[in-house]
């Protein structure tokens, strides 16, 4: 069993990953943020570090998927390999923050890797407006995220919506974060858990 959570920066992926892992006793796999050697530099100078950052994420997520295949456990994953390739890297390229040469090199590498990975059994997409994202980013207070631009978050949201509207790799569950406070409300979390059960096991 492989369930993955997708969503923009600040949408609550890490929090929901932990809550779902605790409820179902699944193994959580988190995005490796604290040990990322490029993240702080990237937010200070996106043009210089965009390619390095995306290659690091691609390597990390591919390595994670290889490990998931080996251990055959029930997994809940914080962010997917597809988001880097279909949202973050193309967005950086479109904004002029990654050269065409670097983007084509990156996407060629992703296309090779994609042949060796399987889509999650269920993808949970956390849909959140930019004000909600900004509020949650400010609450967690990561220093390197202070430089995130509003237009960057807005563009990412637009790309997420476009990607999700055509997603056909497997089952999909969309959670409206603006109207679901699963961080603090057991009732709201319960709604998500019920929806997960329905998607995975057909329980209505």
Describe this structure in words.
It is a single chain. By secondary structure, the chain is of the alpha/beta class. It has one domain (2-201): Rossmann fold (3-Layer(aba) Sandwich). 57% of the residues lie in helices and 12% in strands. It is built from eight helices and five strands, in the order βαβααβααβααβα. It has a five-stranded parallel β-sheet, sandwiched between helices. Helix 3 runs parallel beside helix 5 and helix 4 runs antiparallel to helix 5. The protein is globular and about 45 Å long. The model has no long low-confidence stretch (mean pLDDT 91).
List the defining traits of the structure above.
globular; 12% strand; single chain; alpha/beta; five-stranded parallel beta sheet; Rossmann fold; 204 residues
- Tell me the fraction of residues in β-strands, as a range: 5-15%
Using only C-alpha atoms, the radius of gyration works out to: 17 Å
Shape: globular
Structural class: alpha/beta
**Major β-sheet annotation:** 5 strands, parallel
Instruction: List segments where confidence is low: pLDDT < 50 over at least 5 consecutive residues.
Output: none
Percent helix: 55-70%
CATH class term: Alpha Beta
- Series of secondary-structure elements, N-terminal to C-terminal: EHEHHEHHEHHEH
Largest beta sheet: strand ordering: 2-3-1-4-5
Question: Short summary of the structure?
Answer:
The chain is an alpha/beta fold. It has helices at residues 13-24, 39-44, 46-71, 81-94, 100-114, 130-140, 150-165, 186-201; strands spanning 2-7, 27-29, 75-78, 122-127, 171-176. The protein has a single domain (2-201), classed as 3-Layer(aba) Sandwich (Rossmann fold), CATH 3.40.50.300.
């Amino acid at each position: 069993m492989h369930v993955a959570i997708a969503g923009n920066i600040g949408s609550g992926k890490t929090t929901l990953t932990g809550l779902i892992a605790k409820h179902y006793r699944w193994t959580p796999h988190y995005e490796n943020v604290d040990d990322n050697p490029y993240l702080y530099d990237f937010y200070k100078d996106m043009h210089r570090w965009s390619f390095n950052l995306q290659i690091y994420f691609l390597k990390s997520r591919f390595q994670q998927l290889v490990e998931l295949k080996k251990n055959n456990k029930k997994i809940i994953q914080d962010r997917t390999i597809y988001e880097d390739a279909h949202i973050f890297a193309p967005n950086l390229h479109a904004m002029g923050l990654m050269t065409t040469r670097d983007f084509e090199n990156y996407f060629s590498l992703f296309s090779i890797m994609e042949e060796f990975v399987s889509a999650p059994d269920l993808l949970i997409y956390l849909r959140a407006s930019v004000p909600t994202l900004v509020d949650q980013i400010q609450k967690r207070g990561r220093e390197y995220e202070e430089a995130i631009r509003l237009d960057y978050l807005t563009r990412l949201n637009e790309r997420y919506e476009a990607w999700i509207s055509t997603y056909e790799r497997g089952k999909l569950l969309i959670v409206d974060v603006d109207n679901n406070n699963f961080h603090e409300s057991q009732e709201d979390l319960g709604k998500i858990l019920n929806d997960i059960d329905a998607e995975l096991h057909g329980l209505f």
